[in-house]
Amino acid sequence: MKSGSVAIIGRPNVGKSTLLNTLLQEKIAIVSDKPQTTRTRILGVMHRPDAQIALLDTPGLHEPRYRLNRRMVKTALDTMKDADLLYVMVEATSQPGPGDRLVVEHVRKAIELGGGPAFLLINKVDLVKKSRVLPLIESYCTMLDWTEVVPISAKTGLNLDRLLELTVKLLHEGEALFGEDVVTDQSMRTLAAEIIREQILHRTREELPYSVAVEIDQFIEEGKLARIAASVLVERESQKGIIVGKHGARLKEVATCARLGMEKLFGMKVFLEVWVRVRVAWRQNEQILTKLGY
Predict the structure, then answer these.
(1) 207 pLDDT higher than 70
(2) Residue 64 in 3-state DSSP?
(3) What CATH number corresponds to the domain at position 232?
């Protein structure tokens, strides 16, 4: 059989996590309309009769302002170096901008340093007329000599069969890298934290999502019951008030929806407690960032 690793690369909010979840037909990466939702490398393993593909979702490449963001960008760049193939995602709904050009430049450097081949994935083609896609492809082809160019829709699954067919052709013959029961390397603790953060992202606007992190203080399994205690970290007292909401309504809604999401994913009952704590400038605190796993 064939096996290998594929890094999913792109600027923030182009659909990388959606692509991972759709290919796996299972949700292991949180998704929102906020840029920089993904903060770490997320492994998803595809098991096919002819191949095993290790898909690596990465944080969006951008110009970092905080230590957290520098760690995110470094994670993406390090993942690129180790992958056998790069999926470089852009959007069909917009012309190449500074963020896309930054991504292409990083890909060019990775290839020059011996990195794997690169597929250009034009995402969200279901949202535009076909006549707009060809000029877009031509624009990106002036920037880099892509191994393949594949128009797709990560959300609907359009053309993903073709993408996988081309991917398997490029992978090397070899033994499987993971056991048949391995789908991700995300622990239940990590998944629980991300589910809570996703619910917060869905309910907040402006700068607040970037200032929020979730730490699991306790995770105890008792048969078919998981007892979970979590802290939502924010940087200012005013942000705490936004998440808690009037009479605690927003925090209660976040906790309820997160609990239901965990029960569906984990296949067990969940008892969840969530607090909001202020940690001033946590995005610049190396000790906190390391503790959070970023």
Answers:
(1) no
(2) coil
(3) 3.30.300.20
Domain residues for the domain of 227 are: 188-292
**Neighbour tally for 278: CB within 10 Å:** 13
**Cα 293 from Cα 275, distance rounded (Å):** 19
How many domains does one find in the chain?
Answer: 2
Token pair listed for 72: 């995110």
Distance (Å, whole) CA 263 – CA 226: 9
**Can you tell me whether residue 136 is helix, strand or coil?**
helix
Which residue has tokens 């191994």?
147
Per DSSP, the three-state class of 22 is helix
Distances (CA, A) of 136 to 12, 93, 144, 155: 19, 9, 13, 20
What CATH number is attached to the domain comprising 76? 3.40.50.300
Upper half-sphere CA count for residue 140 (Cβ side, 13 Å): 30
Round to whole Å and give the CA distance between 139 and 265. Answer: 41
Q: What is the mean pLDDT of residues 13-27?
A: 95
**Residues 233, 284 within the same domain:** yes
Question: Against a cut of 0.90, is the pTM above it?
Answer: yes
Write the DSSP symbol of residue 184. B
The answer to whether residue 81 sits within a structural domain is yes
How far is Cα 172 from Cα 174, in angstroms, rounded to an integer? 6
pLDDT band of residue 114 (cuts 50, 70, 90) is: confident
- What's the pLDDT band for 145 if we cut at 50, 70, 90? very high
Separation in Å, CA 5 to CA 19, 85, 160, 276: 15, 7, 17, 38
Q: List the alpha helices (DSSP H) in 25-112.
A: 67-82, 98-112
